[in-house]
Each structure stands twice: as structure tokens, then as C-alpha cells.
Design goal:
The complex is a heterodimer of chains A (173) and B (777).
Chain A lengths: L1 E4 L2 E4 L8 H8 L18 E4 L2 E4 L12 E3 L1 H4 L7 H8 L9 H16 L19 H7 L10 H11 L2 H8 L1
Parallel strand pairs in A: 1-5
Antiparallel strand pairs in A: 1-2, 3-4, 3-5
Helix pairs in contact in A: 3-6, 4-7
Chain B lengths: L2 H23 L30 H5 L15 E7 L5 E7 L1 H4 L4 E6 L31 E2 L5 E7 L2 H8 L3 E6 L6 H6 L3 E2 L1 E2 L2 E2 L1 E4 L2 H7 L2 E9 L11 E7 L2 E6 L4 H12 L6 E4 L14 H13 L3 E4 L2 H7 L6 E9 L5 E12 L11 H4 L6 E10 L13 H19 L3 H7 L17 H12 L12 E2 L2 E13 L7 E7 L4 E4 L9 H13 L6 E4 L16 H24 L13 E4 L2 E4 L2 E7 H7 L4 E7 L5 H4 L3 E13 L5 E11 L6 H20 L5 E2 L4 E2 L18 E5 L22 H13 L15
Parallel strand pairs in B: 1-15, 13-14, 17-18, 22-23, 29-32
Antiparallel strand pairs in B: 1-5, 2-4, 2-6, 3-5, 7-18, 8-9, 10-18, 11-16, 12-13, 12-15, 16-17, 19-20, 20-28, 21-22, 21-27, 24-25, 25-26, 28-29, 30-31
Helix pairs in contact in B: 11-19, 14-15, 18-19
Classes of the chains: A alpha+beta (173), B alpha+beta (777).
């Protein structure tokens, strides 16, 4: 069985203890996914599994056999950055850059959640059709991604600019 | 500290004291910064532009390579075993099960670790970097709860971690001193910081306090803190012939190379420490046991080693900020003029380090009080050595001082902003030195106007919105300008107009690589694209600590010195056939990819022209910055006026910061985009200090009880409103580029602004951080 990572099919590890995070970083050489706590508290290891954001440190690699993983390297590269990556640069949505891949993957997954109408703790109208991507909604949904440098304002600006109402509709597709 | 080294510190301090007096009295022109940096005049170039980070595309694409991400052939993974007692010895250790576990290559403990000299503890020598001076896995003695006692090396991290769980250690505990109260009863001792006593007295402050018309006198406490950079401390090391190669996450590569060289009895140039990216530092990414253990382990098993601390491991191995108990007493006349300022208290260190949390530092230059008494006492506990964390001293010291100022303002019925302005000193109240540049009053006035301070009702508890009480508070933030000696830089200029600047400095997210590229381009008269700024490598020139917010100044002075040398060399090469012929280096500046006469810019020759006529493909110069005497000649400090609005829930007690403004006076701002992030980042760490951060220390066992990011709370997105920052942008005439460092000032004053706003909202004065909801119910 294989795990599809950024479009490439890779053999799953033989050692069932290997987390998806360590598989990506140590076996696949995809060190863009970061380890900040290895216990699901910081969000630095966030990747997309079939488009949904997950914490790769709390996931065993073998659980993802047959699934498709997208890491930060799969979203875009210097020269052809994803619009959100570009917005992070322009809005200075990071300082040291260590939590950044997790913030960006998390935001991509979050935008899809909002587009699907998944409510959050701060959503006022749980039965409503559309959820507005207010700054409060966005901050609540991104609170699993810690940034110790404190680039939160820039991160919020970058996400808000990238996922305006129109782009959210695209994220839903 | 032993008695001998205390004496040595005191002697060094006394020598510095004598020298300081001479430097203070010297004419301005003898002092670095006496002649303003010519770059201060340039107002329309690269400096001051909001350039996006030049390493941004790499970082957002996951292509910036951090220390634990350099793959080395045949590398093994390490896992640590920690002591579970605070003091005593290892009576027995059984590693046999671990050694036979699958994939295990070796198990190292004090019995088989290669021999090592004692670590040079930070501040014991110019390039000493270690957090403490305790032997590293050399003997059976245990010095703190959490000290590494074994390193397991295996083919994979999973195998190493499993095998580490199979190591059986029997400890023999000895009585340990782990309680601050108990230690205080046994007696405190005066604190020494960088060789100088943390003690100042002017007049009889206690008598003036007793006689004052209005006074406040209270105790403020702050807990332990940990840096908690999101990047775990990690290192990848290899012995390559007689060279030790270390991929580190470091804010002091040159210090680390020298210190590790000392321990392994090697010349420092045989230890190569590189650190191109650092995932957050804040004072925590210095030299601790993990780098040394990895080097020892790599020697033992003759293979490269990767050692990444677990998050718990970071709390066990890397020191944090010590707790403080501070008394602030203020006495004033009815008009609010300070007659007495007392700021004293106790903090905690170990016998093996030289770092008392210097919480009186911000008070030294703060206010014009007729009398003054400042004092820090320490007790020494059996614990992991504490260390520098963002704005050591000022971060927690301003909480006490600026909370007290708020209490005094209320007692006097004077607006807190006005009270501070009334006590603005004309010269440094402690040293008597003139200020190099101090515009705090302007920062207060513009900040107050922008924040809408006039809408604040000074009577607490009156503004209610639904179930929320709303309040506003303010505080002064302050951090000194530092520049440490030892900075040096190399500039290499190529005939094609490209330039390379090399200096062993650091980029931990401050924006150094970007801002210094701008500065170098400005200084050299080149486009940004033509300048490459190399850093983070101990083989480059200079000893530049990324600490004390001094890097910008240290790099600026070094590159400035190298540039002067470059001009000299280029004038020689230009010879008599140049429009520059006959000019002296002092008459010449860089402009438009060449040199010109400063006051006659048409007399210009391009670098390409000079070098091609001299038939030189390139020219390379190296120079050291001058000794940092300017800080002994002027009182050099940055300031901030911090404004906070909080909402406190009347049902749950939950405090939420709803608005925050930092109004800064930090000299010239080199890059407003990265500077904004620095200011906001500091303020956000200050919000953590105010509201939630606490490393909980079990005083029975000497062990941190919440060593994780789920139990040690740091601010998350939802805790942080949009933070407004403004600045005066008035250049400091005596600082390189007119800029004072900005990495730490944001955390200062913030906690007091929050606590003062909480008081205004609720009428509850919380003097014990963090300001959690249980204290507001």
C-alpha cells in the first residue's frame, strides 16, 4: 500500500509507530511540515489529508494508506506560490517562519470548512446558510495554530485578503 | 558562583566603573556615534522602506532549512533520559535492555561519555555561551530535576525513544533546596549582573517615603516563564576529520563555536556552527546541554547524530525566566512629583550561573525622583539554571513599577499619563549622563490622542457593556540601547557591481537579513538586488550575540567600519586618473554604485570603473566596529507608551484584551513592515506574560509540572486583537543608522498596561501575575 504525498505515491513505513509527521520529515525529506510539540498542541505539523486539515504528529503514517496528503511543498514553491503563501509574504504573516507552513495549510483547510458551512464556537447563527469570514470567526478557527513570534495580525490579514467571499466559493468546490 | 568568581566579577565591575567615569567625561567626538552615522541623513533610499522579507518565499513554501532538517549520511537519532530528583547521585543504571532493543547503536551515560572540560558559563568570558558551568554527563552527581542522565542512539527516532524508556536508573536523593521561601529564610545575597551590583541609592529614600504626602507601597510577584519558541531545540552534528560540524538553532554561533572548542579542547575554528534559520529564540536558543551531548554522542558512536529535544525536554534542559518578588514604593507631593522611589526584591538563580533577573533595570532611568533605592537580592536553588528571556529585567520590572505608578496616579487623582510626564527627568537620574535621544513625551501625547485616552473614566468599574466591564490602562515600556564589543564584518565588492556582506550574525525572525540588506545597499549605494547578506555561520567575521536587542547596532557599526575601510581601499585603487583623485576617505560617500565627493556628488566614479581600471575582479575588506563606548557617554534608551483596553466578564471573570496601542520612540525604523511585526510580537508575548504564562514549579521536587504547550499557555489567535503600533521615527544621533534595537521593548510595559486596564474595568488590583480569571471572580 502507498500514501500519496503531493501527488506522488510513496511506500508506507514498515514501522507502525511512525507518525505521519516523522514519515514526511524523515522518510520523504519533506521538512516543510514542522514539529513544534509532537503532541497536538501547537499546530505546526498541520497538513491536508484529502483536503481536510489534520495534525500529522497525532496521525500514524499507516492510517493514511491510500489517502492523499498535501504538504506545504505541494501548495506552491518560490516562483509559483499559492495565493495564500504570497499573501503571507506581503502581510508579514510570520517572523521566524517555523509555524508558517502549519498556519498556511490550516488556513487552506479552514477556508474549505467555512465554505462547507461548518460552524465554529463563535458562529452566531448555527442554522444559517452562509458563514461570514469575520476576523473573529477566522481567529477562533485558527487558534489551534500557535505563533510564538506573534505574527497573528499579519496572518489574519493574509487569510482575510486571500479568502474573500469569492475565493471562498471556489474553495468549496 | 563560587566566592572566587564572585570576586572576579566584582573586580571586573569595578574596573568597568572607573573606565565608565572617564568615558562619561570624554568629549563627544572621541566616542563612537559622536559624529552621527552619515546614513542618518539619507531619507529617501532603501532605509525606511517596507520591504517584504527576502527569505519570505522560502519560509512560506517550507523550503527554509532549520537545524534538525539537514540530512547527513549514516546519521543516528538520539533520545534523552532525564533525572527525576533535584539533587543527589545516580546509584545504579541498567542500560542492558535499551542496548539490546532493535535499532540501538549505543547508549551513552556518565560512565562511557567522552571526557570533557567544564562548560564556560555565559558572561564568564567574552565568548562564553553555556547556560551553566556544570559538567555535562561526566559524573554520577545529579544537579537538577530533569538533568539528562543518558542518551540513547538508534537508527530511527522511534527506536531511540522506545529504548530510552527501557533505561532503568536508581537515584540516591540528597537534600535539595527548591523552595524560594525556605531559601529566603536561610538568607539572600546581593545580585551581581554583568559584574555590577544591582543596587543604586540616592538620598534616603525610605525617610523620604515616610515623609511623603502621598504614597503607595506594595508587593508584586511574577512567576517563572519559558521562551517556548515553536521550533524545538534541535541539532545535527558530525565529526568530519578534526572538524566538528554543528547545524544548530542558535542566537550566538561564534560564542558556541568557542565554548564547545573549550570543552573539547579544540581551536574554535575547528568547530563550525551554522544556523541559517532559527525558529524563534527570545533568549532561549543559546548553548545548553543538548548540543554538547550530541557532539559527545557522535564521537562515541563515530556517526553523525541528530538530537531534537521533545517539548518536555526543552523545559528540562533549557532554562527560562526566574520568578520575582518585587516591592515598589512611591512617595510624592500633592502635585505628583516623586520624592521617593523604592524598587527592591528577590529573585532566584542557581549556584552554577551568573544571571539574576535584573528587574530594577527599567527603574534606573525612568523617573526624576528626589531619592532612589533600588536593590535585587538573590537566592540560589537546586534547579535548572535560569536564563535570559525577552527583555530580562524590564519585562517583569516594568510590571511592578508601572502598576505602582498607576496606583499612585489614582491616590493623587492625577491622570496616569500626566503623572508620568510630570516626572520626566532631564538627564539620566541614576548615571547623571545626558540622554542620547528621548522623546517619550511625544510618544505619550500622540499615543493618547490616537487611542482615545480622553474617553477613559478614571473611576473604576463604571463602564459596563452587557455582562462585560470595560476599562483602559496605560504604562511606560522601556529598553536600553546596547551594543556589545567584538562585532566585525567583511564586505566583498565585485567588478560586476555585486556586493557580499559577511558577518556571524543571526536571523531568528527579527528581519535581520532583510533590514541589513537594505542598510548595506544604502551604505554601498547599490540596488537591493546587488547585495547579498550572509550570516548565521561561525566561520564568518565577528562575534555578534543576537540578544539585548543589540544586533542591529552591532551589525551597523561593523558594516560601517568595513565600509570606511572599503572606501580607503577603493580610493587607493582609483589612483590619480579618477575624478576622486586627491580626496580623503572622510570626504567620500557611496552613491549610485560608486563613490563620490560628499558635497559634490558629480565627482563620481563607479565601482566597476575603479575595479576594471585597477584590473581587479573584486576587492574585499574586513573591519571591526569600535568599542561600544557610546553607552557610557550617553544614557541610551528606547521608550514606549502602551495603551490597553480590556473587557472582563462579570460572570466568568474572563479578561479579554480588546484593543492595544504601542506608541514607540526607538530611533529610526529601518523597515516599517518587519518592525511592526517585532513590536506586535513583543506586545503579544507581553499579553501572555500578563494573562496566562506560568511555568509551574513543584517546590517539593524542583520539577516543572507543566512542560507542554497544552499546559503552559501562550497567546493564541483568539487572544490577540489587532494591535496598533506607531513610532516617532526620530533618529538617535549617536546610534548606527540612528536606530536603537526593537526586539524586546514590546514586551515591556505591556503587562502593567493590561493590569491597569483590568483595575479600571473592575476595581480589582491584581499584583500577582498571571492575571487569570480566578483572581477576578
Amino acid at each position: 500500500m502507498t500514501i500519496v504525498v503531493n501527488g506522488a505515491a510513496l511506500d508506507a513505513p514498515h514501522d507502525a509507530r511512525v507518525s505521519l509527521l516523522d514519515f514526511l520529515r524523515e522518510t520523504c525529506g519533506l521538512s516543510g511540515t514542522k514539529k513544534g510539540c509532537d503532541q497536538g498542541a501547537c499546530g505546526a505539523c498541520t497538513v491536508l489529508a484529502d483536503g481536510e486539515r489534520i495534525l500529522s504528529c497525532l496521525s500514524l503514517a499507516v492510517q493514511y494508506e491510500g489517502r492523499s496528503i498535501t504538504t506545504i511543498e505541494g501548495l506552491g514553491q518560490p516562483g509559483r506560490l499559492h495565493p495564500l503563501q504570497q499573501a503571507f509574504v506581503e502581510h508579514d504573516g510570520f517572523q521566524c517562519g517555523y509555524c508558517t507552513p502549519g498556519q498556511i495549510c490550516s488556513a487552506v483547510g479552514m477556508a474549505a470548512e467555512i465554505a462547507r458551512g461548518v460552524p465554529s464556537h463563535v458562529t452566531v447563527d448555527l442554522g444559517g446558510e452562509d458563514i461570514l469570514l469575520s476576523h473573529e470567526e477566522l481567529r477562533e478557527r485558527m487558534s489551534g495554530n500557535l505563533c510564538r513570534c506573534g505574527a497573528y495580525n499579519g496572518i489574519v490579514e493574509a487569510i482575510a485578503e486571500t479568502y474573500g467571499a469569492e475565493t471562498l466559493a471556489e474553495a468549496a468546490e | 558562583m563560587s566566592i572566587a568568581s564572585d570576586a572576579k566579577q566584582a573586580l571586573q565591575g569595578a574596573v568597568q566603573g572607573v573606565m565608565a567615569k572617564a568615558v562619561a567625561l570624554a568629549p563627544d567626538s572621541w566616542i563612537p556615534g559622536g559624529e552621527p552615522d552619515p546614513l542618518i541623513r539619507e531619507r529617501y533610499g532603501h532605509i525606511g522602506k517596507p520591504l517584504s522579507r527576502i527569505d519570505g518565499p522560502l519560509k512560506v513554501a517550507g523550503r527554509a532549512t532549520f537545524a534538525a532538517e539537514f540530512p547527513l549520511e549514516d546519521m543516528v537519532y538520539a533520545s534523552l533520559v532525564f533525572s527525576t530528583i533535584a539533587k543527589g547521585r545516580i546509584a545504579a543504571m541498567d542500560t542492558s535492555h535499551a542496548e539490546t532493543a532493535p535499532g540501538v547503536v549505543a547508549v551513552m551515560d556518565h560512565r562511557n561519555a567522552p571526557r570533557l572540560a567544564p562548560p564556560p558559563v555565559f558572561m564568564s568570558a567574552p565568548k562564553a555561551a553555556n547556560g551553566d558551568n556544570l559538567p555535562i554527563m561526566q559524573e554520577s552527581e545529579v544537579n537538577w530535576n530533569g538533568e539528562p542522565v543518558a542518551v540513547v542512539l538508534a537508527e530511527t527516532q522511534e527506536q531511540a525513544d522506545h529504548a530510552a524508556s527501557l533505561v532503568r536508573v536508581t537515584f540516591e536523593a540528597a537534600p535539595a533546596l527548591t523552595s524560594l521561601d525556605e531559601a529566603r529564610e536561610q538568607g539572600t545575597k546581593p545580585a551581581l549582573f554583568m559584574g555590577q551590583p544591582l543596587h543604586d541609592e540616592r538620598g534616603d529614600a525610605e525617610a523620604a517615603l515616610a515623609a511623603a504626602e502621598v504614597k503607595v507601597d506594595a508587593l508584586y510577584t511574577t512567576p517563572r516563564h519559558n521562551h517556548n519558541a515553536i521550533e524545538l531545540h534541535g541539532v545535527t552534528v558530525a565529526w568530519q576529520g578534526d572538524v566538528l560540524r554543528i547545524h544548530d538553532a542558535s542566537q550566538l554561533v561564534a560564542h558556541t563555536a568557542w565554548s564547545i572548542g573549550q570543552m573539547f579542547d579544540m581551536p574554535e575554528d575547528k568547530v563550525i556552527v551554522t544556523s541559517p534559520f532559527v525558529g524563534g529564540g527570545f533568549g532561549g536558543k543559546c548553548l545548553w546541554q543538548h548540543q554538547v551531548l550530541a557532539a559527545l554522542a557522535a564521537k562515541l558512536c563515530s556517526r553523525p547524530v541528530r538530537l531534537v529535544l521533545s517539548r518536555e525536554g526543552v523545559y528540562r534542559v533549557v532554562g527560562g525566566r526566574s520568578p520575582t518578588e518585587q516591592r515598589v514604593a512611591l512617595g510624592a507631593d500633592r502635585e505628583g512629583h516623586l520624592k521617593a522611589l523604592v524598587h527592591t526584591g528577590v529573585t532566584v538563580k542557581t549556584a552554577s550561573n551568573a544571571m539574576p533577573e535584573p528587574f530594577i533595570l527599567p527603574t534606573r532611568s525612568a523617573y526624576a525622583s528626589e531619592t532612589l533605592k533600588l536593590d535585587v537580592q538573590v537566592v540560589e536553588l537546586d534547579m535548572l539554571a535560569n536564563t535570559f528571556m525577552r527583555a530580562p529585567g524590564e519585562s517583569v520590572g516594568t510590571f511592578a513599577l508601572e502598576s505602582a505608578m498607576d496606583e499612585l496616579a489614582e491616590a493623587l487623582n492625577i491622570d496616569p499619563v500626566e503623572l508620568r510626564i510630570r516626572n520626566e527627568p532631564e538627564k539620566d537620574p541614576s548615571s547623571g549622563l545626558p540622554f542620547s535621544s528621548r522623546h517619550i513625551v511625544e510618544a505619550w501625547r500622540t499615543g493618547a490622542a490616537r487611542f482615545g485616552w480622553d474617553r477613559r473614566d478614571p473611576r473604576p468599574g463604571l463602564r459596563r457593556e452587557g455582562e462585560w466591564l470595560v476599562g483602559m490602562g496605560c504604562a511606560t515600556g522601556t529598553y536600553p540601547y546596547y551594543r556589545m564589543g567584538g562585532g566585525a564584518a567583511r564586505i566583498t565588492l565585485m567588478q560586476d557591481g555585486q556586493a557580499v556582506v559577511d558577518i556571524a550574525a543571526h536571523e531568528m525572525g527579527m528581519g535581520t537579513a532583510t533590514a541589513q540588506t537594505q542598510v548595506a545597499a544604502e551604505r554601498l549605494g547599490l540596488p537591493i538586488e546587488a547585495v547579498r547578506f550572509n550570516y548565521g555561520d561561525s566561520t564568518l567575521p565577528g562575534v555578534v550575540l543576537a540578544g539585548g536587542s543589540q544586533q542591529t547596532a552591532a551589525i551597523g557599526a561593523s558594516v560601517g567600519a568595513a565600509h570606511r575601510e572599503l572606501v580607503k581601499q577603493l580610493l587607493k585603487l582609483a589612483g590619480n586618473d579618477s575624478p576622486l583623485a586627491g580626496l580623503k576617505p572622510d570626504d567620500v560617500i557611496s552613491r549610485d554604485q560608486g563613490l563620490c565627493k560628499a558635497d559634490e556628488t558629480a565627482r563620481h566614479e563607479s565601482y566597476a570603473s575603479i575595479l576594471s581600471r585597477a584590473q581587479q575582479p573584486s576587492v574585499s575588506v574586513e573591519a571591526e566596529g569600535p568599542p561600544p563606548l557610546e553607552t557610557m557617554h550617553w544614557s541610551m534608551h528606547s521608550h514606549a507608551a502602551m495603551f490597553c483596553e480590556v473587557r472582563v466578564n462579570t460572570v466568568t471573570g474572563e479578561p479579554r484584551v480588546s484593543r492595544f496601542l504601542g506608541s514607540f520612540d526607538c530611533g529610526r525604523i529601518l523597515n516599517p513592515k518587519t518592525a511592526t511585526s517585532q513590536f506586535r510580537g513583543g506586545i503579544i508575548m507581553g499579553l501572555g506574560l500578563a494573562l496566562m504564562e506560568e511555568a509551574q514549579f513543584d517546590e517539593r521536587k524542583g520539577r516543572v509540572m507543566n512542560p507542554s504547550l497544552s499546559e503552559y499557555h501562550v497567546p493564541v489567535h483568539m487572544d490577540v486583537p489587532e494591535i496598533d503600533v506607531i513610532w516617532t521615527d526620530i533618529p538617535d544621533p549617536h546610534a548606527p543608522m540612528g536606530a536603537r534595537g526593537i526586539g524586546e521593548i514590546g514586551i515591556t510595559g505591556t503587562a502593567a498596561a493590561v493590569a491597569n486596564a483590568v483595575y479600571n474595568a473592575t476595581g480589582k488590583r491584581v499584583r500577582d501575575l498571571p492575571l487569570t480569571l480566578d483572581k477576578l471572580l
